[in-house]
Write a structure and sequence with these properties.
By secondary structure, the protein is α+β, with helices and mostly antiparallel strands. The chain is built from nine helices and five strands; from the N terminus they run βββαββαααααααα. It has helices spanning about 30-35, 65-75, 85-90, 95-105, 105-110, 120-140, 150-160, 165-175, 185-195, and strands spanning about 5-15, 15-20, 25-30, 45-55, 55-65. A five-stranded mixed β-barrel has the order 1-2-3-5-4. Helix 4 crosses helix 6 (about 120-140) and helix 4 packs across helix 8 (about 165-175). The protein is globular. The protein starts with a strand and ends with a helix.
Length: about 200
């Protein structure tokens, strides 16, 4: 089992990064987010990996963080979700945002990922909702609400909880918002969205 690779980046393109370790170039299939986070060719990089062996293919998948790799493992454990679909989701969602969507039962957000239909998205949410909650409790995955996508989202989550909204209500609306927005804007937009449901 190859757990991780550290070496010089030989090439980087959407969906594929080649890292040279000990004179051997390892081609790693990656999400678009990982590809964007890997340094330019010639610089050193480290990827956590997962090796997949099938009758007709041996593939190495690379991830910038352990959280992303854990998310990939959870996704590929879902019936009907293969490595390609898992990478498509990880290209559009950080592990934090993915966990928020699943916790909130927001399967519609997952259909934004390329090649993920409504049925697949529903199956992912159905199969992973309880698993993610349990693994967050034992610390083997991204905490669903304790580590949302950045400080602004975390601050907005805390504010919504103080205002009396449940964790799943708050997570549901925050997962659909841009985590780069200021906390005050996230709170304002969340309150507006939550007000529609009253």
């Amino acid at each position: 089992m190859i757990d991780s690779l550290r070496g010089r980046v030989l090439s980087r393109e959407p969906g594929l990064v080649v890292i040279e370790c000990g004179g051997v170039g390892y081609a790693c299939r990656v999400s678009l987010q990982t590809a964007a986070g890997v340094p330019a060719a010639g610089e050193e990089a480290m990827l956590y990996t997962r090796l997949t062996v099938r009758e007709d293919d041996i593939a190495l998948y690379g991830f910038l963080t352990r959280a992303e790799r854990s998310c990939y493992d959870q996704l590929t454990a879902v019936s009907g979700v293969g490595p390609k679909a898992a990478l498509a989701i990880l290209s559009d969602f950080t592990p934090d945002r993915f966990a928020l969507c699943v916790a909130a039962g927001d399967h519609k957000a997952l259909t934004k990922a390329k090649g993920i239909g409504a049925k697949t998205a529903q199956r992912i949410v159905l199969e992973l909702k309880d698993k993610l909650a349990k693994s967050a409790e034992i610390g083997s995955f991204v905490p669903v609400a304790a580590a949302p996508a950045g400080g602004n989202t975390e601050e907005a989550m805390s504010a919504l909880l103080v205002l009396g909204y449940s964790q799943s209500e708050a997570a549901g609306v925050l997962a659909a918002l841009d985590p780069a927005l200021p906390a005050s804007e996230l709170i304002r937009l969340s309150l507006r969205e939550l007000g529609k449901n009253l």
